[in-house]
Amino acid sequence: MTVEERFFLAKEDQAFDWLKRPALQKLFALLNRDGEEVRVVGGAVRNSLLGGKVNDIDCATTAEPSLVMEWARAANIRVLPTGVDHGTVTLMIDDESFEVTSLRTDVATDGRHAQVVFGRDWAEDAARRDFTMNAIYLDAAGRLYDPTGSGVADAKKRCVRFIGDAERRIAEDYLRVLRFFRFYAQYGGHYNTPDYVACIAAQRQLASLSGERVGAEMQKLISGRYAVESLDAMLKGGMLPAVLASVPSLTRFARLLELMSILRLKPDMTVLLVALCVDVAEDAKRIAGVMRLPNRLRDAMIRLVANVRTIRSISEIEIQELAYLHGKDVAHDLVVLALVRRQVSTDLTKISMLLHNLDLWRPPVFPLSGRDLLDKGMKPGRQLGKRLSELEQIWVASGFSLSKAQLLSRKVLHS
């Protein structure tokens, strides 16, 4: 058996139970005919080998896109031509989506895009992929195919390794520099050192990529389980400040993750970025622009850095005020950021209890409305809204204790 044909039986491994999903079986039945073949490839196979979760299932097939779409439509399967020019279509089967890509060979690359031709050679399809752990295929019978000869071993060792010459792989698509570090952030283990050196050498080429592509990879990287180690590797290589367009603080980032773990909180992208490299609103605006982040994420970062500075102590009522004004999730983030910045004392047992109580807390309802102020003789308009807002602030500052009558008697009504 040649290296290109070597395979391992995986169907008895419980980690591959998803192979039995009815929707996937329908896909196999659809495309395994008339001399064509389909296999699962990429993340689903890799994650199963590592005992991780399987979400998306991507497939490769010898059938060309036009034939895949023809057969799917004939079977009343919804087809989305998500990347048909590059051989990829998405099939919707029983409310599950499957990306199906025809076997390909690159004929021209410029570091950002590739021109491809469709083929039928699994070894050639594997050779054009980036990492060995990404070039493992699984067929309908539960056989694992490892055309590079080291994909399965590298996956199990959590070794991020380019297929073939790293410089050539990188020159085909410079985003692979960030993908290299993103995979390291997700899977840990180790990386092939010559490949790391090649990535560092090519870092200047990242400037040729769109902000959207860089931003998407960096968000995945920062969310990885081993993000600290990966970011540290990027920092030591001199590339992290340029990618983030800021001076990162890995110490602060690592402390955030440690505290979030102790307090059993799941960090979202907003708090991760703020801890890593956002100190003031201008930082948030710059990073959002460079990485083409959504406006809602930019605004959320600005809100965190603006409000965390006001926190000097943590008590039940102060946490409740934060939750009332910003929502419980943001309150959690603000408390942890205040701890990270060492603005408050680190009594984690107390804070854990307070956050637990907050989860059970039901925000009170502000007892006043605009109608109450109209009944007191105020005229409709902007001034009424301003007075109502001022009264709500007074009510919140009182620990939500002032009654409707007490609020209506406040001098602010007549100022």
Automatic annotation (TrEMBL):
InterPro entries assigned: Bact_CCA-adding_enz_type3_sf, NT_sf, PolA_pol_head_dom, PolyA_RNA-bd
The keyword Endoplasmic reticulum belongs to this UniProt entry's keyword annotation: no
Listed cofactors: Mg(2+)
Domain tRNA nucleotidyltransferase/poly(A) polymerase RNA and SrmB- binding: residue ranges: 202-244
GO terms classed as biological process: tRNA processing
Keyword tags: Magnesium, Metal-binding, Nucleotide-binding, Nucleotidyltransferase, RNA-binding, Transferase, tRNA processing
GO molecular function, one term: nucleotidyltransferase activity
Taxonomic superkingdom: Bacteria
Listed transmembrane segments: none
Keyword check for Protein biosynthesis: no
Residues in Poly A polymerase head domain copies: 39-161
Membership in a protein family: Belongs to the tRNA nucleotidyltransferase/poly(A) polymerase family.
PANTHER family: CCA TRNA NUCLEOTIDYLTRANSFERASE 1, MITOCHONDRIAL
Protein name as catalogued: CCA tRNA nucleotidyltransferase
